[in-house]
Amino acid sequence: MEDLVLKKVSIEYGDDIFSYKNEFIYNDESMDGTGFLRSANSPNEYIEKSLLNETKEVDGRVVTSTQLLAIRKSDNRIVGMIQIRHFLNDYLLQYGGHIGYSVRKSERNKGYAKEELRQALIYCKEILRINRVLLTCDNDNFASQKTILSQGGKIENEVLIEDENCIIERYWIDL
């Protein structure tokens, strides 16, 4: 795996952000850890909302959060995205957790998710002063389970999201 750096969203990556979005849409995949990306009409709109969401709730949908890009240093390309929620509301405590993340399909199975999460946990501890992080994933998402476990995740329980007929696993990581 090549070196990654986590960076806040910025216009410098506008085209690549939308390339990332289009890859997920083309593959009909969930855009975990991307915040407002699916509904954004332009890179500027996405970046503006994401940066505003660091200091206040936007659209009443989510808690304050930090949106980060996982950039491969060798070519300055986005390989993943990660959203760190600053605190948990009732929904996030039950189903969503502190961190959502994804890796574009063309870059999977290279260790990027593990490195994204490792760096995000450092951000949680050092910048946001979060001591205990909740992560969740679908119970059939073996890649995410492996990633969470690699960073010290301890499963607490499973919960059913009835509307989606989906079982979510809830993991805690002590920092």
From TrEMBL:
Residue ranges annotated for the N-acetyltransferase domain, each copy included: 23-174
Molecular function in Gene Ontology: acyltransferase activity, transferring groups other than amino-acyl groups
Family annotation (Pfam families): Acetyltransf_3 (PF13302)
Protein name: N-acetyltransferase domain-containing protein
Biological source species: Clostridium sulfidigenes
